[in-house]
Amino acid sequence: xxxxxxxxxxxxxxxxxxxxxxxxxxxxxxxxxxxxxxxxxxxxxxxxxxxxxxxxxxxxxxxxxxxxxxxxxxxxxxxxxxxxxxxxxxxxxxxxxxxxxxxxxxxxxxxxx
Amino acid sequence: xxxxxxxxxxxxxxxxxxxxxxxxxxxxxxxxxxxxxxxxxxxxxxxxxxxxxxxxxxxxxxxxxxxxxxxxxxxxxxxxxxxxxxxxxxxxxxxxxxxxxxxxxxxxxxxx
Lengths: 113, 112
Prior knowledge:
The complex is a heterodimer of chains A (113) and B (112). With 113 residues, chain A is mainly beta. Chain A is built from no helices and 12 strands. In chain A, strands 2, 5, 6, 10, 11 and 12 form a 6-stranded mixed sheet that branches. Chain A has a 4-stranded antiparallel sheet with strand order 3-9-8-7, with no helix packed on it. In chain A, a hairpin with a 5-residue loop joins strand 5 and strand 6. Chain B is built from no helices and 11 strands. In chain B, the strands form 2 sheets. In chain B, strands 2, 4, 5, 6, 9, 10 and 11 form a 7-stranded mixed sheet that branches. In chain B, strands 1-3-8-7 form a 4-stranded antiparallel sheet, with no helix packed on it. The N and C termini of chain B lie far apart (34 Å). At the A-B interface, strand 6 of A face strand 5 and strand 10 of B.
């Protein structure tokens, strides 16, 4: 079946370190891919998206590239800040079904000064 | 931010009582969703709606019902709450199936 797999957390980094959170997916057809971020006590917010192969989504210094050949959508940031501490969710959406928005389990990131 | 309001934000109730959570949007989006978020399970879809009076079940619909009588409101009802339904509940909206979802700030529900 369709699924999203993310790297296990929690991830702890020092400020200004490089961040990679791995995400791979299994899907029939050609999904849209998303990264959402959840800050403590809040709902999820869209961070970035990509709708077709080789698209690169970017926002607030975060980037992710839709890799069809490796079915991956890894999230990267060159220099993390304490304010980036949050839970990050990879997700896919299939165009053909109302309920086919599948979220990964989330990866918790803590950035320490 | 998308105009989504969930109410109440916190609720504590007893096993066996009925509970209704409300999601109100001001964006006129067609699609609305109810999720629950639990440690170790991530987000799981309970029910969703694709229009007024058009709803369907998600992954974990047992014990829950929904109603959507107006575009802006999507209600989630626990007919007889159980302790296993203690969770954080999120409402989300979207314009189309494959477009990003916008989330409310959640309702923390505790069933004792």
